[in-house]
Known about the structure:
Layout: E1 5-9, H1 17-25, E2 30-32, H2 50-57, E3 70-74, H3 83-91, E4 96-101, H4 104-117, H5 125-128, H6 162-173, E5 177-181, H7 182-187, H8 189-198, H9 223-244
Parallel strand pairs: 1-3, 1-4, 2-3, 4-5
InterPro entries: NST/OST, P-loop_NTPase
GO molecular function: sulfotransferase activity
Protein name: Sulfotransferase domain-containing protein
Amino acid sequence: MPGARPLIIPGGQRCGSTWLARFLDSHPEINLARPYRPEPKVFLDPNAGAADWWRRCSPQDTGDDGSATWVAEKSTSYLERPEVIGRIWTELSDVEVVAVIRDPVERAISNWRFSTFNGLEDRPAEVALDPEHTPNGDAVTNDDGNSPGNVQPRRYLQRGRYSELLLPWSDRFGDRLHVVVLEELLHRETARTTLLRELGVAPTAAHPPGSVNASTDRVPVSQGVRDRLAEYYRPHRRPLEELLNRALPWGDPVPRD
């Protein structure tokens, strides 16, 4: 696609990356890789190169006239797979990266609900989301990493330690890394237009979608679980704010839905 540049959305999981991808895809200058599912995950293959990426991520059925500014890939597992960073940097020299984060407490709960609904989790939230039962938020018993794309479905706590996940991306990509906050994208038009301006496209051409890939399991989660999660993430907030050089919008402790 002459003139188009590569754009990658690496996650994070259950942070609204699908919503973000659909929002960007609604812009006439941004073409998202098809099909939406399964995700391309091109650079999980250590042998993948730029030709593989362009072949698999350039939409074939959009009727594009060659005027696209960006060709985009959304592969959520990238954010927690630091080995892909060097591959992306080497193969896509003019790439830009947009990562999305959300309130880590709500993200952990959404992850647990998603895993429960899909038969990947049978523990109640009081156990699955308790830091004492999942030391350091890492994989736990019966999570062998053999889920599709080698994405471990029960790393509920680790995925909310955003500063640890984002730091290697920031170190490599610098100003080419754009980190957006889901709560702001959903409720503030200025957040959406700012992102589009950073990508150099008209800020009025994209339209936010409705609910996308939302958890359908609405099992209540107690305030006690939420309070323990908030306490767990408390020491991780300042490093994230320092990395992003901004304050974050979610409360402390996080209120009920």
